[in-house]
């Protein structure tokens, strides 16, 4: 004890005591301030949600089966419709919540010396395909049961857009007298015409709606199933010989449609963006039956970008591992597909309720089907809503834009501008503003007419 007082004098102890007490006082004041400011904010948000009528009451009823909707006053359309809701793009940000709650399971660290070479496997047909990513692709398809991988070559691309271009290059004869016709049944994916003709290639050209195509000679028919934008399961529609089919299966996952069987086509395109939500990785893959076609696709990617980012492939492999593990060992959230399928089901219920309440629009109707992966029967719940404005409205996109809802007009999909495509994949807060606003558009229009006296 004497040694202790030799080191710490009474003056030292007094200073230490004052410091500890000051620290305690500051801590209490901080917590009180945090409780007041943030507590009031949370209470206000809850009050806003509690007092909002209309479609959001249905949202609250369906919340019980999933984690809580993010607390944000922006989830209520209390600004009179001033907030601009952009649902033109299919940016899959709704998946963020799953991956946030998954924590560090999908985290990957890449040392600076790793993945420096152009080559992933110099002896492989697709020499820039990371073996780990290829392995996880096969495991994922076998787990879900949505595509045959046996006797197929895997070609990786910077998203399915690059793979689409690679397919056109691979299937087009280099010595043809005229460009190969490329068609798809309307409504078709709006980017097909743009991507096909952007380089004004002499190898191929966009030839429009497959249903009206009657030109003689070889052609490529694009079959998107489930279809973007209307969500229907598709088959080939051109009834003539000489065609080559390319199946875009970006949405053939159990959160969007029942998995009836494993797709078994010569050329099948998939993408990480719509299967796991990681659009920013820019990673897609093709399952190709013919070796020569696969070689030509690889050659295109080689000429175009000298391969595909290894970092993105390694991260994608890790993400697919987590997805597969969530299917085998579900957590409280279930698997990724359980989580997203439930969320899509809830969103479609809310959207249909909003459409009924507005009385100004119609939506496609889908028949239920049995899903071999989820072991239940349900109707398709597409990534996009194909909304039609009722008469006399001719420009649905313009009408919704006047209500600060940004969509993509049907004219970009080869059909009437009475239709619009609306993304169902945005963040919760934006989606809830959208459905609430859609449900009250008729009332808002009536109020505007009354105020103007017209």
Automatic annotation (TrEMBL):
The keyword Signal applies. Residues 85-441 form the Alliinase C-terminal domain. The keyword ATP-binding does not apply. Homodimer. SUPFAM superfamilies: PLP-dependent transferases (SSF53383). Residues 71-82 have a biased composition (Low complexity). Its cofactor is pyridoxal 5'-phosphate. GO terms for molecular function: carbon-sulfur lyase activity; transaminase activity. Residues 1-19 form the signal peptide. It comes from Populus deltoides. This is Alliinase C-terminal domain-containing protein. Residues 59-82 are annotated as: Disordered. Belongs to the alliinase family. Keywords: Aminotransferase, Pyridoxal phosphate, Signal, Transferase. One of its GO terms (biological process) is amino acid metabolic process.
């Amino acid at each position: 004890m004497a040694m202790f007082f030799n080191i710490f004098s009474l003056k030292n102890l007094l200073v230490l005591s004052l410091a500890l007490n000051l620290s305690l006082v500051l801590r209490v004041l901080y917590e009180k301030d945090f409780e007041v400011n943030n507590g009031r904010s949370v209470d206000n948000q809850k009050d806003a949600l509690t007092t909002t009528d209309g479609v959001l009451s249905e949202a609250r009823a369906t919340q019980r089966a999933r984690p809580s909707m993010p607390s944000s006053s922006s989830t209520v359309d209390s600004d009179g419709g001033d907030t601009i809701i952009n649902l033109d793009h299919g940016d899959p940000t709704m998946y963020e919540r799953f991956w946030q709650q998954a924590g560090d399971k999908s985290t990957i660290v890449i040392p600076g010396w790793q993945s420096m070479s152009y080559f992933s496997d110099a002896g492989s047909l697709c020499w820039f395909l990371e073996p780990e990513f290829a392995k996880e692709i096969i495991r994922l398809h076998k787990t879900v049961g949505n595509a045959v991988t046996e006797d197929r070559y895997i070609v990786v691309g910077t998203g399915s857009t690059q793979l689409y271009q690679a397919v056109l290059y691979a299937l087009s004869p280099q010595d043809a007298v005229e460009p190969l016709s490329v068609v798809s049944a309307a409504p078709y994916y709006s980017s097909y015409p743009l991507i096909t003709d952007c380089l004004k290639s002499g190898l191929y050209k966009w030839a429009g709606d497959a249903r009206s195509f009657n030109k003689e000679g070889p052609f490529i028919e694009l079959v998107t199933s489930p279809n973007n934008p209307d969500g229907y399961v598709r088959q080939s529609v051109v009834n003539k010989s000489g065609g080559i089919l390319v199946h875009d299966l970006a949405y053939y996952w159990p959160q969007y449609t029942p998995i009836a069987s494993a797709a078994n086509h010569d050329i099948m395109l998939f993408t990480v963006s719509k299967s796991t939500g990681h659009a920013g990785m820019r990673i897609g893959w093709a399952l190709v039956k013919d070796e020569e076609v696969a070689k030509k696709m690889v050659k295109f990617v080689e000429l175009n970008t000298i391969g595909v980012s290894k970092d993105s492939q390694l991260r994608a492999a890790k993400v697919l591992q987590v997805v597969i593990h969530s299917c085998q060992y579900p957590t409280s959230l279930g698997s990724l597909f359980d989580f997203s399928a439930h969320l899509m089901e809830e969103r479609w219920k809310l959207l249909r309720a909003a459409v009924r309440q507005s009385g100004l629009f119609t939506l496609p109707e889908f028949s239920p089907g049995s899903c071999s992966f989820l072991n239940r029967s349900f109707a398709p719940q597409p990534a996009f809503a194909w909304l039609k404005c009722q008469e006399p409205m001719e420009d649905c996109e313009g009408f919704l834009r006047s209500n600060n809802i940004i969509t993509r007009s049907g004219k970009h999909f080869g059909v009437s501008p009475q239709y619009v495509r609306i993304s169902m994949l945005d963040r919760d807060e934006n989606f809830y503003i959208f459905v609430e606003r859609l449900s009250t558009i008729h009332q808002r229009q009536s109020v505007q007419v009354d105020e103007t006296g017209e």
